[in-house]
Amino acid sequence: MKKIFLLSAFAALLGLFNSCSTDFDVAAPYKEIIVINGLLNPLDSVHYVHVGKAFLGEGDVFKMAQQADSTNYADILDVKLEKVRLNNVDSTFIMQRTTEIAKDSGAFGYPYQVMYKTTQKLLPDATYRIVVTNRETGVTARSTAKMLKDVTVNSPNVLLNNIIDLASNPVPYQVIYDFTTGNSFLHDFTIRFHYREISPSNVSTDKSFDWNFNEQIPDESEVKFIFQKNDFFKAVGDNIPERGPGYKIRLDSLANGKYPIEFIIAEASEDLVTHYRLQNTSGGIVLDKPSFTTVENGLGIFTGRLLHREFLFPNAVTQAAFDSSEYTRDLNFEF
Question: Would residue 30 count as lying in a domain?
Fold first, then answer.
């Protein structure tokens, strides 16, 4: 029976891996392979890294993948995060083992998955190294990532008071921001629209959808996204279904006081962009896609990214436009 390697199932959290590795001799003796997957955003308050293992086995590979211990280590790992400056370790933080993030169903075992986390504040533009050591075997894997700096939003100025106007002026809407050149290699923008659907029986359900924009090439250090304001209302109408009489949509009573319009600016490191593009290359067979790892003595992708978020509330003119726009007037918005 053919022996096959499988990588751990970090894809459930980040959607990064959807293939098996084929870079190993299927007849080779067992070798421990630590798999590290983590995208560190310095703006997050909690940072999670998945540390698992590849496995080699005989029989039905899909049945083996359903076993949690095939991809997860027992509590035998020491995982630490080191802040590195000029090749010297400035400080060290111990990452805690946790299973608090459940995994969705799929090819790999669920809902049990092991993550390692820290609440240590990570500094923009700083370099961090993760070091994973198996206390029983002494096998160690490590990887280094440089944090990205936050962006500076230049337009619109209304972000300062969290009120947005998407109706009173017919000119296109522009989101313009500066980024730090050097370690950011992808510039993406998404509008996430949050809303509360209320049924005729007064049952409330919080929902959202994403309106994604194409990646932009910056003009020097400035990135600009432009959209027609009417297209915003079309996106709302295309993504919120009409429920019929008695249903209402509210934007002013979301959980935790969240504002309904979320601007998400995404910046990615060169390693993350390289991995993404290799994984999305066209090819006849998924297994033939080229592999990419940033981990020394292991596998996986450990690198930096940035997700900058702005939460906005529509002004009175925009609120009125929800009732007048041909795309949203039948959705029963209330404020």
Answer: yes
